[in-house]
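Render this sequence as a predicted structure.
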Amino acid sequence: MIGIGSFGSVYKGTLDGGETLIAIKVFNLMRRGAFKSFLAECEALRNIRHRNLVKVLTACSSVDYQGNDFKALVYEFM
């Protein structure tokens, strides 16, 4: 884990066999407003491209092993 924010935690990871560093923001959906924050962040970052903003690589929406909703955003690592 590299950080904790209002609506979740951020982890450092890799893609492409360890060649690409990424940051994974996992939303704590038990916290009030986290789901709305996830949707707002997806909507806001979907079409924004700027040299001073990290690039969103993908979004994840699934169910974890306990049957709870799971939402995460995967960013390029800076």
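Summary. Residues 34-46 form the longest helix (13 residues). DSSP finds one helix and five strands in the chain.
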